[in-house]
């Protein structure tokens, strides 16, 4: 059991809770991409069955495994054809941005619910895993929010930059994208993560959580 725990980013007891949180977070994230693309005129995701809240359509096996092992992962990217957009740059940015934004909003909603449970005392009468669930719910959704805005493929931050830069720069980015993905994976699964992605997340997420708590407390 200890050997298994050594390979996991979370306590073994919490794995089912983390899995439940990720199913919700990943599903809403990818649905937000698909729905925003559909609103702007691209039905590619809809035709491929991705305009749905069915998690089976969105979970990526490698991305799911990595979040248990490395603490960070991803879902299966929603297919988007930017040439169906009337304004490809603006629509492309908004489609990419709505995924992380959905996780940001989920984290805020989770903070509100957790605050209600604590303030009313309901949390003390509920099973231990309820508050643990919401703690992970807030934390992991904010991790996904920050993580997906990192400007490396295949993340949303990279797609946003692609739609902001000029066509010539975009072409060069596409040319080297496969190498950038390799660099990203090397960073993610090696100790380099401890000097790059992890410090970013470990500083940004608690700051946002404190801001959420301040806002919720003021209006509660």
Task: Characterize the structure shown.
- By secondary structure, the chain is mainly alpha-helical.
- It has one domain.
- Helix content is 70%, strand content 0%.
- The chain is globular, with a radius of gyration of 18 Å.
- The mean pLDDT is 89.
Reading the helices and strands in chain order gives HHHHHHHHHHH
What is the overall pLDDT average?
Answer: 89
Tally of strands: 0
The radius of gyration over CA amounts to 18 Å
Distance between the termini: 43 Å
Tell the overall outline.
globular
Low-confidence sequence ranges: none
The helix fraction, in percent, is over 70%
Count the DSSP helices. Answer: 11
Q: Structural class, from helix and strand content? A: mainly alpha
**Biggest pleated-sheet summary:** none
Strand content: under 5%
Number of domains: 1
SSE topology:
Elements: H1 2-6, H2 15-39, H3 44-47, H4 61-69, H5 88-120, H6 122-125, H7 128-148, H8 156-164, H9 167-175, H10 177-189, H11 197-219
Helix pairs in contact: 2-5, 2-7, 5-7, 5-8, 5-11, 7-11
Q: Any key phrases for this structure?
A:
mainly alpha; globular; 220 residues; 11 helices; single chain
Short summary:
Helix content is 70%, strand content 0%. With 220 residues, the chain is mainly α. The chain has one domain.
